[in-house]
Each structure stands twice: as structure tokens, then as C-alpha cells.
TrEMBL record:
UniProt xrefs under Pfam families: Esterase
Species in which this protein is naturally found: Paenibacillus albiflavus
Protein name in the entry: Esterase family protein
Amino acid sequence: MDSDLSRFYKRTIEKKTISSTFLNEERSLRIYLPPGYNELLTYPVIYCQDGEEFFNFGRIATFMTRGILDEGLEPAIIVGVDVNIVNRTAEYAPDGDRHQAYISFMAEELVPWVEQHYPVRTDRDERILAGDSLGATVSLHLALRYDDLFCKIISFSGAYLKSTQQALAEHKDLSWLQMFMIIGTDETSVATERGTFDFVLENRLTKEILDQKQTKLLYIEKPGQHLWGFWQKEMSDALHYFLGDGIS
């Protein structure tokens, strides 16, 4: 990588707000426009749960810019959807009392808004959902409900517990779904609001179901904890899996 890192920070990140009827509130967005952005062109789009964290801790904008400038990555627009931590579990967990409203907001309000304001491509295979932990969970459930809109998911240490496994098992065929799925082998005792879980075991069980349903799956286990310090190191590979020539 070029020793002059400053050029990787020369990018445009716009901050916007969108009013949601489903959530009955305004939601903050961070929108990354790639180097050479041209409104006459069209771009793939990545929708990130935990938008602030994906930008600040995952450094997705930096990895995207470096990939475009140096590694042949296809330019894409990134939409980071911020979340109020107080409501995160209620929105992201499948049994949360705001979950249905949140996924309806994503599919029926956010996607049309983005497509109205930015030159993103509108085929489902040009949209990527990205999430960590429960953010990966809600991304998967969003794709299952709106399979006409979404078919690609970046999953960092997904919180795929029994309700998610049951939802997957109800589908006869998931060959339309493509996932980059990584779990840290140190994530055997992850404390959450709802108890402590072995995320390695749950991800392995989820992988078995996805394999049975013919999902296009890149599944990776490697040493790592349930932290952004682990996920950030995998960001480049995740982007290359969907927007490059595979893992860099």
C-alpha cells in the first residue's frame, strides 16, 4: 500500500436525515460517494446497519477508497444507517418490538429514497447488506422478507440464534442468497442483553442450514473476538468478495 495514506481520506461523505413513517422518527444517514463520483454513472450500493460504527470503527470508507484507487475494486456508494443504541435490540432482533417497523423502513422507505437521490443501480444483485452481530441478523431477515430487493449480505459475527435458524429452515431454497460470513473462533461466550451465547456454535449451525438450502456462501472461521478490532481487519476481503475479483 502507498505510504501516503492521505489520499485514501480524500472522499466525500454526506450526512443526511430521512423521515420514517414506520419508525415515527427521523433517522441519520452517512453516505459515501466514491472517488470520481459522477451522477451520469450508476453504482452498486452497500447498506450498512450500525452506520456510525461501520464508518468510524470499521473504516469502510477508507477500505473502499483504497480498493478503488489501488486494487481494482468497483466503485460503490455506501449508505450507513445510524441506530440509537437504546433501540438497537428492539429493531435488530427478530422478536424485537420495533423489528418489523425497522425492516419495513429499510425496504419501503430508505431504498426508494436512496434511489431517488443517488444514481444507484436498482437490480437486487447490485445491493449489498452489511452488518455486525445483530446488525448481520437484521440484514439476513431483511433479505428473507424482501428477497425481491436483496440477495447479498456481508455478515460479521452474526447473532444467528434459534429464531433465525428456524426462519431459514422454513425456506425450501436459498440458492438466490449470497453471503460473506465470518466468525471469530474466540466468540464462544458472547455476553448480550439476552444472555451469553456461543456464537461459534450458532454460526456453524446456521452454516449447515444455509448449505442445505444451497446458499452461495463464503464461510470463514479465524481467531478473533466479538469486536470491531476483528471485523475491521476483514472489511477489505468482504468488499472484494462482492465488488472485486474475490478475496484480495
